[in-house]
Every structure is written in structure tokens, then in C-alpha cells.
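Input (structure):
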């Protein structure tokens, strides 16, 4: 009897282990089945050269960006500039662009589903519509004028990314042999918008200002005087020139380093750190499963002067362009914004929906009252400093930035903001590496892209 009981117990253990293993497999299959099926060694989906031989990629207007020909070779849009402008969203046939749809969304392109796997009646895979506007990406890429950088524009209500450009780029139909030290292709495989982090310069002052609005009750009654050099702690914080006497509106419009260095030191490192985190600048966003890079801000253990420089966006501050764009969208949206997404829809060979695309929102990144105040101050920047005439038919709020990178290089130029037009709920970010003045270099790129978006030019 005891032998029977022992054998029964062993059988129960084995059955339990089998069921546990089966459960783990089912969970893993549901989570990663698409990745397994779309592995590049799968010759049902990839040709002998390792190119995805099924699935078409289109922009939001239905323009074909990439598709397989009858032999399974990858084809691309007929304009070389469009191919370069959309490279980091579409991808290359060799799979070197990790954020490109040919890699990131290979399972959707293959037509995979958990029931039939990658089998489909047509055998052609799915049509994947990106949220991008190919024309807008073309304009942004041209506007960068050969400079390295990134341009992003998205609808902060729906999350749809209309423009995502990273430069340098290359033609996927004629991929270069990239040699170490070749400046033309420095970081060419990196999607600077999603995966890069950079010194933010004065666009970071939107964080410092938010903290000051909420923590310093007399902020709007204060008067500041800038002589071009301000003592903060055991050192000075300098401005390009003396701004004279001004209130906080003037200090923000003039982007006065001295004033914002003083404010950062007064607020303290713990306050500044908490506002950076609340704004989402240390977060990683999931853009249809593609994770953005997290910014980094070493705001603890600093001297008063170092904290002052951190408060103006210098020192060890590093920001991700995508996260900064979402922060702009949250200001525009009264505290929250949609999480960016790149997939508009997916259709199978019979024209039926093959995926469900939902809009997700961030948590509260800024208090609604503070957001309204900050938006008004950013609108004042455009009126007083950047020139509203550069942005026709736009109710625009913006902040420029000049991020010093050292090493004898020109500073990075930034321009960040959003539109308040009812029919144009767009937030944007422009980075021009070694571009110099943010208002000029990056502002000019933003003006061209937004003009095309709003006015159709």
C-alpha cells in the first residue's frame, strides 16, 4: 500500500511539474511568440539574404515606404531623401536600425497571430500603417541641412507621431560601409529621437520654472538684475550679455542663466530632483514596445554653484528628445499627455484589422494651474524673443536652448514647445547638434516643419 502511495505521489508531482511547465510555456508563447516566429533565421518569412520578405510599410496617407517585390527583395520609396528621412522609423534590410519597423514590428508585418502563427491565406503578410507623414519627415530632414540631430512632432491628444527624424542617416538602397572615425556616419544606427540623450541647455529651465512657480510664493513679485555674471555659491554663473532689470517673465524670455541659477540654488537639490522625476525626464516611454532612453540628472551631492548650473540645463544634465517632447505635450494638455505611438493601424491581406491600437496617457506630470501659467510664459517667449511672425496661423508656446558640450565644439541647439490651436494639438522637439543658437538654428527647423504641418507649405 505504501509503495502505491509513493508512486501516486511521484505521479502527482510529475503531473504538477508538467502542468507548471506547460503554463510557463503558454505564457511565454503569448508574450514572445511573435518574436520567435519573426526571428531572422525563419526562411518562411526571410529571404536567403536575411531580408523580411513579407509585409508592407505605409505612412499615414497610404504612401508605400517599403515592400517586398515578387522575389522577396526589399523595395523602398522612390525618393532618396524620403528614404533617408524615414530610415530610423522604417528600418533597413540588414536589420541594423533596431527602432525601424522591419525589426521592431516584424511580427506584425509577418501576419503572425497566436492561433495560426505566421501562416496566412495570401502569404504576403500584413500592411503596417505608421503614424508618420512622409512629406513632413522629408521637410524636417532637409531643414536639418546635413547637421546631426533629431526632430519630433506628435499629437499630444492621440499620441500619433507625425514626424520622427534622426540624422545622420543613409539610403537603405545604398547602405554605406561605415568605418570607425568617419564623422559623416557618427552614430548613424542610433535613433537620436528615441535612443539618444543630450545636454538640454535652457529648455530645462521649464522644469526649474515649474518648481519655482509652485514653491516660491513671491516669485511673480520679485525683481531681478543681471549684469552678465551672477555669484551663486562659490562661483559665478554667466550669461552671454547683461540683461539688466526684469521680472520672472523677462528672465524666462531672456533665458537668463543668472536668475535661473539662483532659483535652482534656492529651491535645493531635493526639490529639483523631484520635479525632474515628476516631469518624466528620467522615465522610459514604450513607443509600441520600442523603449526610449531615460534622461539622467545627477542632482545630489552638488555644490550650490553646481546645482545652479544644473538648474539652467548644464553640468551633467542629459535629456532624451522624446521625453522632452512628451513633457511639452503635458504642459499643453493641462498636466497629462498621450504616450507617443508609431503604429496607426495594421491590416491583413484581406483588408481587415490585424491589431488593436489604443491611446495611452501619462500620469500627471505637472499641476494643471502651473501648466497654464507656464504655457502663457512660453507664449510670451515667442512674442518677445523668437518672433511670432515666424509661425503664421499658430498659437505657439516655445522655449529655446543652447546646450554647451565642451571640447571646443559649438553648443547643441534646441527648440521645444507646442501649439494651442484647437485643430492642431501638436508638441514638438528639435535638436541640432553643434547648431549654436537654439532660437535660430533649431527654431528655423521647427518653423519650416510646423509651417508645412499647419499651413500645408
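Output (sequence):
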Amino acid at each position: 500500500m505504501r509503495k502505491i502511495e509513493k508512486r501516486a505521489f511521484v505521479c502527482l508531482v510529475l503531473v504538477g511539474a508538467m502542468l507548471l511547465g506547460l503554463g510557463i510555456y503558454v505564457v511565454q508563447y503569448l508574450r514572445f511568440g511573435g518574436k520567435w516566429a519573426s526571428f531572422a533565421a525563419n526562411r518562411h518569412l526571410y529571404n536567403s539574404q536575411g531580408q523580411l520578405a513579407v509585409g508592407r510599410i505605409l505612412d499615414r496617407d497610404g504612401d508605400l515606404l517599403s515592400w517586398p517585390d515578387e522575389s522577396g527583395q526589399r523595395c523602398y520609396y522612390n525618393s532618396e531623401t524620403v528614404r533617408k528621412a524615414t530610415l530610423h522609423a522604417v528600418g533597413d534590410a540588414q536589420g541594423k536600425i533596431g527602432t525601424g519597423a522591419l525589426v521592431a514590428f516584424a511580427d506584425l508585418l509577418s501576419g503572425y497571430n497566436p492561433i495560426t502563427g505566421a501562416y496566412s491565406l495570401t502569404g504576403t503578410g500584413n500592411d503596417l500603417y505608421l503614424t508618420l507623414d512622409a512629406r513632413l519627415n522629408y521637410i524636417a530632414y532637409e531643414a536639418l541641412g546635413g547637421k546631426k540631430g533629431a526632430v519630433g512632432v506628435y499629437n499630444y491628444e492621440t499620441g500619433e507621431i507625425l514626424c520622427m527624424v534622426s540624422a545622420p542617416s543613409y539610403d537603405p538602397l545604398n547602405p554605406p560601409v561605415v568605418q570607425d572615425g568617419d564623422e559623416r556616419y557618427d552614430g548613424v544606427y542610433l535613433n537620436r529621437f528615441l535612443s539618444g540623450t543630450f545636454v538640454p541647455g535652457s529648455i530645462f529651465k521649464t522644469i526649474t520654472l515649474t518648481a519655482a512657480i509652485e514653491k516660491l510664493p513671491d516669485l511673480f513679485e520679485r525683481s531681478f538684475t543681471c549684469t552678465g555674471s551672477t555669484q551663486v555659491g562659490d562661483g559665478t554663473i554667466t550669461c552671454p550679455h547683461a540683461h539688466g532689470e526684469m521680472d520672472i517673465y523677462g528672465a524666462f524670455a531672456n533665458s537668463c542663466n543668472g536668475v535661473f541659477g539662483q532659483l535652482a540654488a534656492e529651491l535645493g537639490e531635493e526639490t529639483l530632483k523631484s520635479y525632474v522625476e515628476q516631469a518624466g525626464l528620467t522615465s522610459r516611454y514604450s513607443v509600441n514596445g520600442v523603449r526610449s532612453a531615460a534622461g539622467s540628472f545627477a542632482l545630489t551631492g552638488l555644490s550650490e554653484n553646481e546645482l545652479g548650473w544644473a538648474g539652467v540645463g548644464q553640468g551633467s544634465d542629459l535629456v532624451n528628445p522624446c521625453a522632452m517632447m512628451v513633457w511639452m505635450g503635458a504642459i499643453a494638455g493641462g498636466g497629462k499627455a498621450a504616450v507617443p505611438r508609431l503604429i496607426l493601424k495594421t491590416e491583413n491581406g484581406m483588408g481587415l484589422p490585424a491589431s488593436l491600437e489604443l491611446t495611452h496617457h501619462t500620469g500627471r506630470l505637472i499641476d494643471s494651474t502651473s501648466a497654464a501659467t507656464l504655457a502663457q510664459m512660453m507664449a510670451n517667449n515667442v512674442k518677445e524673443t523668437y518672433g511670432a511672425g515666424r509661425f503664421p496661423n499658430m498659437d505657439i508656446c516655445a522655449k529655446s536652448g543652447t546646450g554647451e558640450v565642451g571640447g571646443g565644439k559649438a553648443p547643441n541647439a534646441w527648440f521645444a514647445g507646442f501649439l494651442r490651436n484647437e485643430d492642431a494639438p501638436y508638441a514638438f522637439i528639435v535638436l541640432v547638434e553643434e547648431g549654436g543658437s537654439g532660437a535660430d538654428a533649431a527654431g528655423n527647423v521647427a518653423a519650416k516643419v510646423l509651417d508645412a504641418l499647419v499651413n500645408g507649405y
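Notes: Confidence is low (pLDDT under 50) at residues 29-34. The radius of gyration is 25 Å.
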